Amino acid sequence: MFAQKHGKFWEMHKLLFENYQKLTIENMKSFAQQVGLDEKAFEESVSKQAFKAAIDKDVGDGSKAGVSGTPALFVNGKRVMNRDFANIKRMIDEALAAKESEKASK
Question: To which H or E segment does residue 75 belong?
Answer without folding.
Answer: strand 74-75
